[in-house]
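User: Design a sequence. Structure:
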């Protein structure tokens, strides 16, 4: 039973045991040989010489046998660990190849150490060996991509930066694909950067779907804008009509004079300027922002209110401004205005729907951790908690189907978080709901 337990032990234990016995036998053998070397064989009896000769044969042969056995077990354990390592590597390779994202890793010299199946596929490679040891310059990348990748790699290797939500476009087999991913520093046990690991995915279909939703929301918002234009034009058009009637009445009575006529013409001109400015404000809003520009926080709020304030005032809803900072930021101005218009319009509709007397919309700006926050709060009694968690989902609406499309807030979140690199959140307070934009 004891023998069975002994031989069932881990092969490493057997190697140590046999190795120790082999060393012991070798030491004893060397002592015997040393003794025989200095011994006067003539003084030893014949039987003793025979015994010594037998020992002289057995000791080396035993030592050699144990050494061979030691080598055998050593080779067995190496083979076992090699097979285990190979199986582990194969398992990891299968796992990486099963992941729907592209994965790669490379050393501090920019030489690729590996990549999964999708990554190799994008590069037009068939086996990992075709990637191993190569740099970006040796692969199928465009000059613009190489320059961009070089800057990213330097930022990671030299400064230890973690680059997230990196977007890139590539032409593969004649078609343009959009990718988004992250590149992170690969560190050793001491925390030193020894390479780069990257993960990214194909977001082409997502962007197409997103573009369709944004387009749908944009068209819906254009309809709302036209309604706002009509509302803002109504009063100046009425004023112009009244001036025209007054001039006509004076003319019929032959009581019109030059001074009166010039005064009324100036009043008409002021109203026309107002109409023209209104059109310009809306036209500027619908201009696409191709590039980010520096803009003051106060300017964003002012331009938003120019568009929507008239329709808010007509509903007897007060707009309260708490502007604590006028910091400048680098962003897409019109897209931020688009989000603010959606939030303010929703606040107006919530106040109207709940028949709130003394409706109020509070717009605040603050500087928090070197970033601008714009908060829009209303006193429309808020949104149920279970619905509040879903308001940013596409096609989810708290309004009646005939009124709400469910894409306004979804589109707003996409604009702020995906395009402007900020964050859009919502929470209830004691009076209603607050939307917070961080840029």
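Assistant: Done.
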């Amino acid at each position: 039973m004891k023998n069975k337990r002994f031989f069932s032990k881990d092969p490493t234990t057997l190697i140590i045991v046999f190795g120790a016995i082999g060393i012991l036998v070798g030491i004893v053998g060397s002592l015997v040989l040393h003794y025989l070397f200095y011994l006067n064989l003539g003084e030893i009896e014949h039987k003793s010489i025979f015994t010594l000769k037998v020992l002289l044969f057995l000791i080396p042969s035993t030592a050699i046998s144990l050494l061979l056995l030691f080598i055998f077990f050593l080779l067995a354990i190496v083979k076992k660990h090699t097979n285990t390592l190979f199986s582990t590597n194969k398992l990891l390779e299968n796992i990486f190849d099963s992941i729907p994202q592209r994965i790669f890793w490379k050393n501090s010299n920019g030489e690729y150490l590996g990549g999964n199946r999708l990554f190799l596929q994008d590069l037009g490679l068939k086996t990992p060996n075709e990637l191993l040891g190569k740099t970006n310059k040796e692969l199928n990348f465009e000059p613009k991509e190489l320059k961009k990748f070089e800057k990213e790699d330097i930022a990671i290797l030299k400064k230890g930066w973690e680059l997230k939500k990196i977007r890139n476009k590539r032409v593969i087999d004649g078609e343009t694909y959009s990718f988004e991913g992250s590149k992170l520093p690969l560190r050793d046990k001491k925390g030193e950067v020894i390479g780069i690991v990257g993960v990214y995915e194909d977001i082409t279909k997502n962007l197409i779907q997103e573009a369709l939703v944004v387009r749908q929301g944009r068209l819906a918002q254009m309809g709302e804008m036209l309604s706002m234009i009509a509302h803002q034009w109504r009063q100046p058009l009425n004023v112009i009509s009244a001036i025209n009637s007054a001039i006509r009445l004076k003319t019929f009575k032959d009581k019109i004079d030059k001074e009166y006529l010039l005064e009324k013409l100036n009043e008409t001109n002021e109203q026309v300027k107002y109409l023209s400015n209104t059109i310009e404000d809306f036209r500027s809003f619908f201009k696409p922002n191709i590039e980010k520009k520096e803009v003051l926080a106060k300017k964003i709020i002012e331009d938003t209110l120019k568009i929507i304030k008239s329709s808010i005032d007509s509903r007897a809803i007060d707009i309260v401004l708490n502007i604590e900072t006028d910091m400048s930021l680098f962003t897409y101005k019109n897209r931020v205005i688009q989000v603010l218009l959606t939030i303010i319009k929703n606040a107006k509709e919530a106040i109207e729907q709940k028949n709130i007397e003394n409706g109020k919309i509070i717009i605040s700006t603050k500087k928090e951790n070197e970033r601008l926050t714009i908060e829009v709060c209303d006193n429309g009694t808020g949104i149920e908690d279970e619905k509040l968690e879903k308001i940013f989902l596409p096609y989810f609406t708290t309004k009646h189907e005939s009124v709400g499309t469910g894409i306004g807030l979804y589109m707003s979140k996409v604009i702020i978080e995906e395009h402007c690199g900020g964050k859009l959140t919502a929470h209830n307070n004691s009076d209603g709901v607050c939307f917070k934009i961080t840029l």
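The chain has a mean pLDDT of 77. Residues 185 and 191 are 10 Å apart (CA to CA).
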